[in-house]
Amino acid sequence: MASERPQARVDERVARAADDNTVPEMAAVERQAIARMLRAGVRRLLRGAPPARARLSRPVPSPWLSWLPVLAAPSLVVGLVAVLLPGWPTAVAGIVGGGLTLLLVLVAAGIDSTVPPPRRPDCQHEQLDGRPHPLLPYFARTGLVEYVPGQVWVAQVPLRFHGMQLATRMTIVRTGPDELLVCSPIALDDELRAQVEALGQVRHVVAPNTIHHLYVGQWLEAFPRARAYAAPGLPARRPDLPWAATIDEQWDPPWRRELVDLAVLRGHSFWIEVVLLHRPSKTLVVADALESFGFAPETGGAMRFLLELIGMAERPAPPVDLKVTFDDLAATRRGVETILGWDFERIVLAHGRLVEREAKQTFADAWAFAYDE
Asked: I need a surface site. Which of 26, 38, 48, 222 has the fewest CB within 10 A?
């Protein structure tokens, strides 16, 4: 009975953090990522290219070329100081510039060691069913869009994340004649609620990792018959929400697995993601396991340059800081192998362009780094 479900008990600290999707654990991870990136750079310089690069579907140029202007900048500054301020200022500038250049070389080498996948600038079709694609650009606000007729729907909205203006995308799949599953729910307004109600009954709300949880409470309040299911580690972060279960590999879901299957990507200190497969439509649904940025004209020049430096421009892949902070790649590979054993033709992801071409190879390339041990 709907009345048996405990009501959401909104934690005010969580509510305040939700305004900008602040993730306290990420501060520690970012510091860890910098240290690990430098160590990875040293290994890259001493040992050569990581063995996992051999798993990529095609040869990938090294990101070093993108770093050349950055690496040249300290030398130019030292040269300018030598001309304008000869003597001891030039010596000081030389020491500082040399140290900075070495640091940048190590960062560039570390990023190269994360096995950036091949570019896929045409991963998303420009049209859907003969009309302009309703999900381009990827940061645009859309209503509910029917993606696979009668089976899969998506909606995307702008979102601030740690001070940056990004976007996020929700996915809805059908799990029965009048039953729906919502993954990574976005903010719910009256228009979106009416669109969803026209499709059927929301019975399942999935928060797929410790970051994609902000609006679960809204959906539970709007759809009293729905139950919420959390990725491992999330209930501890959101004890204010009435989770029906925590998802793991042995969990028996309340929907038929021949319709929606699941796998868990592990191996990280706090980031664990549940990946879904909607079997009838051959659609893989991910949150942060794949991000797909750096496609003009959606991406501004400064952000595109940054994405080039970190090896993510036009390269669907997990975030670089995530890739360098996995602690148990053997556990990660188990989840990757499960997913690559599935039959899927497209990937719906929360951030960036969808993957509608070479979907399985795109995922395999993105997670090749997990085989670098």
From this structure: 48
Q: Is 16's pLDDT higher than 60?
A: no
Residue 266 tokens read as: 């592990």
CB contact at 8 A, 48 and 109: no
Phi, psi values for residue 159, rounded to 5°: -155, 135
The confidence score (pLDDT) of residue 83 equals: 72
Give the pLDDT of residue 113. Answer: 93
248 contacts 272 by C-beta, under 8 angstroms = no
Q: How many angstroms separate the CA atoms of 233 and 212, rounded? A: 12
Average pLDDT, the chain: 89
Q: Could you tell me which of 158, 262, 157 has the C-alpha nearest to residue 207?
A: 262
Q: How large is the average pLDDT for residues 260-265?
A: 98
Token readout for 240 is 């204010």
Q: Write the DSSP string, 137-184.
A: STTS----EEEETTTEEEEEEEEEETTEEEEEEEEEEEEETTEEEEES
Between CA 279 and CA 148 the distance in angstroms is 12
User: Quick one: pLDDT at residue 164?
Assistant: 63
Query: Helix (H, G, I), strand (E, B), or coil: what is residue 64?
Result: helix
Phi, psi of 330, rounded to the nearest 5 degrees: -65, -40
